[in-house]
């Protein structure tokens, strides 16, 4: 069984569902697709990324176990996104549901050189270019409080296989003002 770490986000309603309701519905969908939900983070209100691109997001993270391959897991995540109205119209645009496969255990995919290439792209190129292959761990995981803070709830000691830092260490490396923008929602 593989350990998958999924970052979840939504900032647009899906039909009559609020972003929080959509995240909960997606979590229910995981159990119907050969995926065992091991743990779920709290839900957080986070600023839209990039700044000014839309309403604030609701973000969370989920730890799944499955015998799926990483590519099959990604395909299932895309199917769940589509079920909840996700349209891929704009890179880093507003979304009814965003399910990002951010890590699979200690896998580095497709290889270290490709990971390092995408990890070191300039911010301008990051906005314009999207990889055609699945890159794991997510090449900007370490830079994104909206991913790391929820991930800390469920996998604080998970160690990045390239950077050799735990989720806690990556969170602690972020600027305090960036972390302060990530606000837990009351249940």
Automatic annotation (TrEMBL):
SUPFAM superfamilies: 6-hydroxymethyl-7,8-dihydropterin pyrophosphokinase, HPPK (SSF55083). It holds the Pfam family HPPK. One of its GO terms (biological process) is folic acid biosynthetic process. It comes from Marivita cryptomonadis. It comes from the Bacteria. The keyword Kinase applies. The lineage of its organism: Bacteria, Pseudomonadati, Pseudomonadota, Alphaproteobacteria, Rhodobacterales. The keyword ATP-binding applies. Keywords: ATP-binding, Folate biosynthesis, Kinase, Nucleotide-binding, Transferase. Residues 5-155 form the 7,8-dihydro-6-hydroxymethylpterin-pyrophosphokinase domain. This is 2-amino-4-hydroxy-6-hydroxymethyldihydropteridine pyrophosphokinase. Catalyzes the transfer of pyrophosphate from adenosine triphosphate (ATP) to 6-hydroxymethyl-7,8-dihydropterin, an enzymatic step in folate biosynthesis pathway. Belongs to the HPPK family. It is an enzyme of class 2 (transferase). One of its GO terms (molecular function) is 2-amino-4-hydroxy-6-hydroxymethyldihydropteridine diphosphokinase activity. InterPro entries: Hppk, Hppk_sf. Its EC number is 2.7.6.3. Pathway: Cofactor biosynthesis; tetrahydrofolate biosynthesis; 2-amino-4-hydroxy-6-hydroxymethyl-7,8-dihydropteridine diphosphate from 7,8-dihydroneopterin triphosphate: step 4/4.
